[in-house]
Specification:
The strands form 2 sheets. Strands 2-1-3-4-7-8 form a 6-stranded parallel beta sheet, sandwiched between helices. Strands 5-6 form a two-stranded antiparallel ribbon. Helix 2 crosses helix 3. Helix 8 links the parallel strand 7 (180-185) and strand 8 (207-212). The protein contains 10 helices and 8 strands. The protein is an alpha/beta fold.
Amino acid sequence: MATFVVVHGAWSAGWAWKNMRPLLRERGHELFTPTHTGLGERSHLARPDIDLEVHIADVLGVLRFEDLHDVVLVGHSYGGMVATGVADRVAERIAHLVYLDAFVPRDGQSLADLTGAAAHARVLAAAREHGDGWRVPPNPMPPDTSADDLAWATPLRMMQPLKTFEQKLRLTGAVERLSRSYIYCTRPGPGDVFRQFTNRARSEPGWSYFELDASHNPHITMPDTLAALLDGIATGRRP
């Protein structure tokens, strides 16, 4: 049995992974899906000073208070920023780090650095126009998301605190010594921001690389396929 801890993406929360819970549990695994401060059921805690470090602290708290070790830490999308910080600080608790169509920062980088100046300018404009200057409205969900899933998920997606995109992550280098996997979803959105990390996963030591014929949210659009892949990564029975 593996213990999975999911670090969810921007605008999302633990609720987005509810379809994955029975699929991983029936394979004998345990799944924790904590929600970041200011999002989901914790949206009432939203405030302008929430930054990347607050979300890292959220996940560190789960690992500490649940006394979790040998964790398979899964970072999805923006969650790759958070998961990298978590893994770097408590590498001794992490058995394997999985990036699911996620950002893979190096020391001193922010998400804004990885998306580029033009994309971040659009984020700033959206925050000014629709988020009181400190919250970023959600991006559209992938076009292959079913009507039922859109009806379920859209009302639950909350604005993201802007500082979580702008704070630069400080790393000690411990995360670089962990076993890591990258899962690239081959139906990218505009700009294909995650392709930049595939070369790193394919060329640097310590990585395994996988592709899914999926859009950006396979935990919603194809949970069975994703569950099988995560099970294989955790158990060594690679698909």
